Amino acid sequence: NSGVVCLLRPLLLDVVPSIRQTTALALGRLADYDVGLAEAVVKAGILPQLMCSLPEENRYYKKTAAFVLRAIAKHSPQLAQAIVQCGALEMLVICLEDFDPGVKEGASWTFGYIARHNSELSQAVVDAGTVPLLVLCIQEPEIALKRIAASTLSDISKHSAELAQTVVDAGAIAHLAQMIPNPDAKLKRQVLSALSQIAKHSVDLAELVVEAEIFPVVLTCLKDSDEYVKKNGATLIREIAKHTPELSQFIVNSGGVAAVVDCIGSCRGTVRLPGIMTLGYMAAHSEDLSMAVIVSKGIPSLCACLIEEHEDHIKAAAAWALGQIGRHTTEHARHVAVANVLPTLLDIFVDTHSSEDLKSKASRFKALKNILQKCTYLPALEPLLHEAPPSILKHIIGQFSKVLPHDSKARRLFVTTGGLKKVQEIEAEPGSLLQEYINTINNCYPEEIVR
Length: 451
Description:
CATH architecture of the largest domain: Alpha Horseshoe
Radius of gyration: 29 Å
Helix content: over 70%
Largest sheet: none
CATH superfamily of the largest domain: Leucine-rich Repeat Variant
Distance between the termini: 86 Å
Number of strands: 0
Low-confidence stretches: none
CATH class of the largest domain: Mainly Alpha
Number of helices: 33
Structural class: mainly alpha
Mean pLDDT: 90
């Protein structure tokens, strides 16, 4: 408000190097504060001044100039675009080739802040020739430089398969994969994130990541003491598992399911989410993969998530995953039903505090319907008769109408437990599917018992 930005601008061209550097630092801190100040710095015409003699400057000034640029770029795509338009990328590439690791780190960090906004800005970063230089940076001995370069490769890769392919073509996967066992947790986070962003786009890219022999070493990340390493490791496995049954089977063969189940059991909150999704994707592919999740005790872990978690989106993911496990055959549905999952899903559906997203996933359209349509384990279904809303009730009654005509023991139990009595209390529209189910059940018994 006092017009300081305009007063600082000519000092960027001062003959004393330390004044130039301190001026840039002041501008960077102003721009870092909020989007309004960043816009004010850009409008004051600071960027051309900052760039004009950058290649000849000392390493301290270069680092500070990179700080100013990322302080501006981080706020919005429009501000990042302003940096691209002033020709900063070409100058930053020169910094990325500098002998000083700190200068490389600053440039790499700025490229990441520009690339993360959208695919157009990411493409501009790629077009500037950064990717091969970033791949060289992850091979440098300095841990901080490795971290930032891996993070920037992740930011570039995330937008599209084409951008990810550019990173792959520069030979990044092999070098990233070699760093998974590195003891530095922050580096591991970025490495796992970069590989996830590459693998997520297509089967071909996921297969290239797998071919870099990341298994079984990536499974050790699921036991890491750092929560973000765990989360990013599980995310990488999820991005591979989702594509094809073959890739999921490869993960199973590597001992991946048990490792994911253990990971879900050992953490809380959003760290669980990618693991939950991984089990759901695997189970969705085929009966055998779903059974692999069951054998590895995936159902109790997912049920625990339904009960323990407070965030609706995590409960929704667990409900979806259980639905994928139970939807294949009566045997799969029985395993889910025996674990006493159905009452929990029903409670979520009828709970007035549940979000609409959670209701839709745990409702008749998703998990409950998937399981109920295959479930013939009547002891698990019967308690639901007394609590289920009409939308769910028809699926439960439908399963009873399939089983009771062929099972005399089940027919006797259905009477003694009060199930048949409850069926008589249901008001169904004449000619409806529910009425047909009720008639089928009633026809299993003599008329006086029904009365």
